[in-house]
Structure formats: structure tokens, C-alpha cells
Amino acid sequence: MRKWLVVGAGLNLALGVPGLVPVWLVWYMLSNWPLADLGWTRGEPTENDGVWPWFVMFGPFVLLFALVWWFANRPVRRRAGGAARCTGRRPWRRSSRPRSR
Asked: What torsion do the CA atoms of 19, 20, 26, 31 make, to the nearest 10 degrees?
């Protein structure tokens, strides 16, 4: 079990560095269109193509990266015991009980 926790940490660190690119793409798209329309950010003044090219060019890239991350973590989660710990209400019930002394 410990081996799979180390593998999971290494895998997520290895995927996390290039994972900054999709995070930046999502932020750029959000800050230029919906958040700029609400007045929360300022849109890029030279960005006048609209949102459609961003969906067509970078939407599949972000989706592909999310799928790679998910498929890479599925076997690690199953072998590290994360599936048993994260399902159901057991962890919530255990953490919400008052301690008896």
C-alpha cells in the first residue's frame, strides 16, 4: 500500500507541472469573457476573435489532459485503498462524533 502512495504522489507531481498549462488556458478564457463581462476582470484589449476559437483549439487539449490525469490515477487510487476510504458516509460519521473521555 505504501508503494502505491509513493507512486501516486510521484505521478501527480509529474502531471502537475505540465498541468499548469490547462489551468492557465482556463483562467485566460474565464478572465477574458465571462468574468470580464461581469466586470470582475479586464479583458485583453487585443483579443477580438471571440470565445469560439478558444473552445475549438484549447477545449480538446484541456479535456485530453483531464482524461489522462483521471485514467492515470484510477489504478493508483484503487491499489492505494483510496476507494474504500472515500466512499459512503463512514469518514463523515467518524469525524463528527464527539470524543468521549
From this structure: 170
- Dihedral angle of Cα 29, 31, 37, 39, to the nearest 10 degrees: 180
Q: What is the rounded CA–CA span in Å between residue 84 and residue 11?
A: 20
Helix (H) or strand (E) holding 60: helix 52-80
Residue 35, H or E segment: helix 34-38
> Alpha-carbon distance 38 to 25, whole Å?
19
DSSP state of 20: H
Mind listing the pLDDT tens digit for each residue in 27-69?
Answer: 988 888 888 889 999 888 888 887 888 888 888 989 999 898 8
Measured CA to CA, the distance from residue 25 to residue 4 in angstroms comes to 31
The C-alpha cell 483510496 sits at: 82
